[in-house]
Amino acid sequence: MSINAVLKIAGSGLNSQLIRMNAISSNLANASVVAGSAEEAYKAKRAVFSTQLLNPDQRNDIKNQTRNGVYVTDIVDDTRPIKQIFEPGNSLANQDGYIFGSNVNEIEEMVEMLDASRAYQNNVSVVSTAKDLLYRTIDLMKS
After folding, report:
1. Backbone phi, then psi, for 55, in 5-degree steps?
2. Around Cβ 8, how many Cβ atoms within 10 Å?
3. β-pairing verdict for 34-35 and 67-77
4. C-alpha to C-alpha distance for 43 and 75, rounded to whole angstroms
């Protein structure tokens, strides 16, 4: 595996975790938003990850497959139920007096943000280490 492959794999991890962090920040920003119906209520977003093959010709050769990192295949809505809140005085309330809050759990989102941040930092460390090794190799070639 070349340094370029290492950088490409780590770069895919950086990009994927950044997309994940964007989804999480959107969830946190919309955690307290309410709507007049369950369909209009904000639903938490989740990034769906997939492994990317370095060489597409190796798809059927499982023993010799070379991985190429990760990519986000989709951003999906969380399927947990929407909060139904009885608030008849709210201008968004339906005929029965209910408004609908998001299904975002702020504590879970903060844990997800910490996890995404750590994964991002791990990929930064891989890039930094690969860069240092490349510079050391160049220095050895100079001497």
Report:
1. -125, 110
2. 15
3. unpaired
4. 11
Nearest Cα neighbor of 115 from 66, 69, 46 is: 46
Asked whether 10 and 126 are in contact (CB, 8 A), the reply is yes
Q: Answer yes or no: are the C-beta atoms of 4 and 54 closer than 8 Å.
A: no
Query: What tokens appear for 86 in the block?
Result: 């009885």
The mean pLDDT values, 10 residues at a time, for the chain of 143 residues are 84 96 98 96 97 67 69 96 95 96 97 98 96 90 84
13 vs 102: CA distance, rounded Å? 29
Cα separation of 12 and 49, whole Å?
11
The confidence score (pLDDT) of residue 73 equals 95
Q: What is the pTM of this model?
A: 0.83
**Tokens 């009885």 sit at which residue?**
86
Residue 16 CB: number of other CB atoms within 10 A? 23
pLDDT at 1: 61
Give the pair of three-digit tokens for residue 120: 């991002």
Q: Which helix (H) or strand (E) holds 108?
A: helix 106-142
Q: How far apart are CA 35 and CA 49, in angstroms?
A: 30
